[in-house]
Every structure is written in structure tokens, then in C-alpha cells.
Design brief:
The protein is of the alpha/beta class. It is built from 16 helices and 24 strands. The strands form 6 sheets. It has a 9-stranded mixed sheet with strand order 2-1-10-9-11-12-13-14-15. Strands 4-3-5-6 form a 4-stranded parallel sheet, sandwiched between helices. The structure holds methylmalonyl-coenzyme A (MCA) and adenosine monophosphate. Methylmalonyl-coenzyme A binds next to helix 8 and strand 13.
């Protein structure tokens, strides 16, 4: 089935012969979807795309609420040999303009509520057609899916062909599209499925968004590849997750999930029969790890990944899951620590830049050959920009970031992008954006602003002026004004000084 389409074949294999098994329990609609129904719908989606003129290699850009139809569209896009390009639902029209212009998709699928505003954006970007999927699973694309006859011969695609482009923000303030091949996605999901012992007996609580690697490729691809089932929740809700735990076996989440669940009533009892808790996308505090273990008896399994690489390391399924570490390189993934200045390998145990190589690594940045050459070495190692070390027992520790990046509730935020927007405001001389500790989100955004002499401007004014340009999660949770930014002898803003000064702002 789906012969010759590298990824689709692998996503389908486990459920062949078990078509009536449950794939997805839809929390929103209350409906159960079997593997048979899911793949039939994905095939109809592929038909609808082809009927709209989508050709192999074309991009299908998608900014829609978390729905079963979006998952069907993902698999349908792969079946049609096209390239899936999911976008964060929080992005504003101004942000969407960039992605559509850069990626030049053939089709853009959006929320029907945003169709008027985004159709104009899509038209300007030269997108041929705009379709919709709504939060209630309705919309013009589901309509076309339902009108199509099931049955679709998968378009042949090899391991090196593109399956998806995921944009990841950059230190320059310009997002970069990571090109992910069929092989990168398939090999990583296969490795994770085996490393985490996924089987048809598993029921995953799926509460992550599906426009990022974690919710789309880790959670969904593993479920499909193992023939497991999932409870598909449109968003995180601690009490609803507790309600589902007795019928589930696995939860995947960002650290904020675990911090919030620890505050919820009834965690110990609800989690008694769970098999596995996985955390990633941001550092899990050792304190959260030990509180969880003390309360539930389960040791959270922390792993480390990136948009460009999928998952690189994981704590062991069997064996010691060590708090504050991200475990060992996954089978087939090489991880080395290099000197940030010279790129030479560091002696065992010392801290440097983490570099990774393996079938999981991306093929480069979309239309950015220079950026690709800067970060992806000709020998295949990708320079992650994360700082870390490997201890004597082989566990990888992430000790910091060489890149100016904030991770808030599992979302990556590049300060430069926010600084560019704030610096553009008429009453602002300059700004520096930093991340400071936040109990719920791990880190939260603070903007430190130097206003023009004699100009009266408040934090509220700034918030109002930037709100149309930046997704809500990127907007500063605190805005501070100063006379001047601290600088070193080279004139570089000392963000460490600012981070210290505003360290307690959310406490
Ligand atoms: C929501 N807000 C946020 C965030 N989420 N602000 C900063 N950071 C966030 N992550 C804003 C909301 O717009 C709202 O603004 C206010 O904060 C409070 O919202 P709340 O209702 O508490 O938030 P929520 O809707 O419950 O969402 C929190 C969340 C969510 C469940 C933690 O952010 C989430 O699902 N995060 C997961 C992200 C993820 O999947 N990352 C994986 C990336 P206001 O009230 O002012 O309007 S993939 C990756 O990183 C790599 C590859 C890897 O290794 O996995
Ligand atoms: P992104 O590619 O935007 O999804 O984010 C990838 C980044 O998230 C990595 O480069 C790390 O900085 C960070 N990250 C992911 N998982 C972990 C983890 N378990 N611990 C610490 N940082 C993590």
C-alpha cells in the first residue's frame, strides 16, 4: 500500500490488516476515527489537492485550528507528493505575509474566520487558491474531501524528496524554512517508536499543537507508525487530561504541561496506570522531574530535539532517566561537542556547541544557501547553537544556548524579531528583548526600551502598537523603560546584565 512513497508507506504499514483499529478519538466532536476512515479521508484530501492543481513538490501552506481534517491534509499532502507547510495559529496576517511570499505555496488553507483578511494576503503573495478548515471540522476543503471518491494511488517519492517545510525563527529576525525529507521524518519516527516501545496497545494523549515538530512529527508520526491510538485534544487542559489518563498510556508535553498538571487535583490517582510521560522542546527543571516522580511514581522521560533535526537524544526507556539531562544520542544519531571558536572537537566532559549528524537531519534552509552553509557542515554535522556537554556516563546535558533565543511554554521566540518591531516605533530609540524565569512558561519575554527624549510613552502604548505585527505568545509580558541600555567595551548590549536586573520581574 502506498508503494514508492517513502513516508506514506511507513506511516501506513502498521495498520495494514488492522484497519478497524481506533486511530483517533476526537475530543472536540466526540467521534472515534478508525485507521480505515482516516486513510480514506487522507486519500480524498490528496484527490482534492490534485484537482486543485497541486503537483509533486508544490507547497501546501496551512494555518488552521487543530483538527482531524488538518491531520488528514498532512497525510494527503504527503500522498500527493507535495510539501506540507504548517503555520502557528497565533501568527498575525503580517507574519503570514512573509511565509507565503517566501514559500510560494500553490495552496493556502486557513480558518474560515480569517478567510477575508488572509485571502488578500495570499493574493498579494501569488497563491493560486485559498481553502478553509474550521475548528468544527467544516470548511471548503472538508467539503471537497467529502465530494471525492476514496482511493488514490500515492505519488512516488524517494527518501530524499521533500515532505515538509517548517519555519523556525532566526537570530537575524528572519524566519528560516527547514526542509525536511521523507527519510528524515520516517527514520526519526521509526527510531522513537522503538526507543519508547510504542505498540498498537498504546493510547496517546495528544494535547500539543500540530504545527510544530513535537505535536506533528513526534506525536502523530509515532502513533501512525506503531498503529497506536490517540486522544486528540484541541488544546492543553490539565483537568481534561487527568480525566483521560485512566484510559491512556502515554502523554507527550512541554515542561509547562507538567508544571500545570502538578497543580491539578487528582494527578496521583489518574496517572497510576500510565506507561510513559515524555517531555521536550524546553528544559524540564530537575525540581519538576523530582516532584513528578515523588507524587506519581513515574520518572518523566526527557528528550532533546529541534525543528531542523527532529529528535536527537532521549533518556532511556529502560534505565536511569536522569533529571537535568536529555539522555543519550538516539540510535543512528551522532552527537559531538565542539569548540565554538574553532569547531574542533572538545575533550570528553567539556562544554561546547552540540553538533548532530544522522538520517534525521534536515536538508537545508529553503532558499537560503548561505545560511545553510553556515549551519550545516559539508561533513553532514548540523551546528545546533545549543551549548552542552556529555558526562562520563554518556548522558548529554544542555547547559545553555549559544544563540539569542527565548523558549516560552515550548515556543521559540527570537528576541531580534521583537526588537526590530519595537525599534520601528516612532518614539523608540532602541530596545533589548530578554527572557527571564517564569514559573508557568519557564521563560517569559521582557522588553527593555529606551524612549526618545521628552516623549511620553507607556507600556500599554507599546503593546497596542505591536499587537498586529507579532503573535500573542511573542508579545512581551513585561515592558520596562530605561535611560540607556548597558553595553560592553565593544558597544554590544549586555543582555546578561539585563537578565540579572529583571530576574524577579514575574516572581
Ligand atoms: C500562550 N501564551 C503564551 C504561550 N502560550 N505566551 C508565551 N508563551 C507561550 N507558550 C499567551 C496566550 O496568548 C495568553 O495571552 C496568555 O499567554 C495565557 O495563555 P494560556 O491560556 O495560559 O495559554 P495556553 O493556551 O494554555 O497555552 C499554553 C501552552 C501552549 C499549553 C503551554 O503554549 C502550548 O501548547 N505550548 C506547546 C508549544 C509546542 O508544541 N512546542 C513544540 C515546538 P493573553 O492572555 O495575554 O491573550 S517543537 C520543538 O520545540 C522542538 C522540535 C522539540 O524539541 O520539540
Ligand atoms: P525549535 O527548533 O524551534 O523547535 O526548538 C529547538 C530548541 O529547543 C533546541 O535548539 C533547544 O534549544 C530547545 N530544546 C528542545 N528540547 C529541549 C530540552 N529537552 N531541553 C532543553 N532545550 C531543549
Amino acid at each position: 500500500m502506498y508503494h514508492g512513497n517513502h513516508l506514506a508507506e511507513k506511516l501506513r504499514a502498521a495498520s495494514l490488516g488492522a484497519e478497524s483499529n481506533l486511530f483517533l478519538r476526537n475530543h472536540q466532536t466526540g467521534k472515534d476515527i478508525s485507521y480505515r476512515a482516516f486513510f480514506a479521508n487522507a486519500e480524498r484530501m490528496a484527490k482534492a489537492l490534485v484537482a486543485s492543481g497541486v503537483k509533486p513538490g508544490d507547497r501546501v501552506a496551512v494555518q488552521v485550528p487543530k483538527t482531524q481534517a488538518m491531520l488528514e491534509l498532512y497525510v494527503g499532502t504527503v500522498l500527493a507528493g507535495a510539501v506540507f507547510l504548517p503555520l502557528n495559529t497565533a501568527y498575525t496576517a503580517a507574519e503570514i505575509t512573509y511565509f507565503l511570499t517566501d514559500a510560494e505555496p500553490r495552496i493556502f488553507v486557513c480558518d474560515p474566520n480569517c478567510k477575508d483578511e488572509l485571502s488578500a494576503v495570499a493574493k498579494d503573495a501569488g497563491v493560486a487558491e485559498v481553502l478553509t478548515i474550521g475548528a468544527d471540522e467544516s470548511g471548503s476543503l472538508p467539503k471537497r474531501r467529502d465530494a471525492a471518491v476514496p482511493g488514490f494511488t500515492a505519488v512516488p517519492r524517494g527518501p530524499d524528496d521533500l515532505a515538509a517545510i517548517l519555519y523556525t525563527s532566526g537570530t537575524t529576525g528572519r524566519s528560516k524554512g527547514a526542509i525536511l525529507t521523507h527519510q528524515a521524518l520516517a527514520s526519526n519516527a521509526q527510531t522513537l517508536k522503538e526507543s519508547w516501545h510504542f505498540s498498537a496497545d498504546d493510547m496517546l494523549i495528544h494535547a500539543l499543537p500540530i504545527f510544530h515538530t513535537h505535536g506533528l512529527f513526534v506525536a502523530t508520526n509515532i502513533t501512525l507508525m506503531a498503529g497506536s491510538s490517540c486522544i486528540f485534544m484541541s488544546k492543553f487542559d490539565a483537568n481534561e487530561i487527568l480525566d483521560y489518563m485512566p484510559e491512556a498510556t502515554v502523554l507527550m508535553g512541554v515542561p509547562t504541561f507538567y508544571v500545570r498538571l502538578l497543580e491539578a487535583e487528582g494527578l496521583r490517582k489518574a496517572s497510576a496506570n500510565m506507561r510513559l510521560f515524555v517531555s521536550g522542546s524546553a528544559p524540564l527543571l530537575a525540581e519538576t522531574h523530582s516532584r513528578w516522580r515523588d507524587l506519581t511514581g513515574h520518572s518523566i522521560l526527557e528528550r532533546y530535539g529541534m525543528t531542523e533535526t527532529n529528535m536527537n537524544t532521549s533518556n532511556p526507556y529502560d534505565g536511569d532517566r536522569r533529571a537535568g539531562t536529555v539522555g543519550f544520542p538516539l540510535p543512528g544519531v551522532e552527537l559531538i561537542v565542539t569548540d565554538p571558536a574553532t569547531g574542533a572537537p572538545m575533550p570528553q566532559g567539556e562544554t561546547g556547541v552540540l553538533e548532530v549528524r544522522g538520517p534525521n537531519v534536515f536538508a537545508g534552509y529553503w532558499k537560503m544557501p548561505d545560511k545553510t552553509a553556515e549551519e550545516l557542515r559539508s561533513n553532514g554535522f548540523f551546528i545546533t547553537g545549543d551549548l552542552g556537554r556529555i558526562d562520563a556516563d554518556g548522558y548529554v546535558h544542555i547547559v545553555g544556548r549559544g544563540k539569542d533565543l527565548i523558549i516560552s511554554g515550548g515556543y521559540n521566540i527570537y528576541p531580534k524579531e521583537i526588537e526590530l518591531v519595537i525599534d520601528d516605533l516612532p518614539s523608540v530609540v532602541e530596545s533589548a528583548v530578554i527572557g527571564v524565569p517564569h514559573e508557568d512558561f519557564g521563560e517569559a519575554v521582557v522588553a527593555v526600551i529606551v524612549a526618545q527624549d521628552g516623549v511620553k510613552i507607556s507600556a500599554k502604548d507599546v503593546s497596542n502598537m505591536i499587537k498586529d505585527n507579532l503573535a500573542r505568545f511573542k508579545q512581551p509580558k513585561s515592558i520596562e523603560f530605561v535611560q540607556a541600555l548597558p553595553r560592553n567595551a565593544m558597544g554590544k548590549v549586555q543582555k546578561n546584565v539585563l537578565r540579572e536586573a529583571y530576574d524577579g520581574v514575574f516572581q
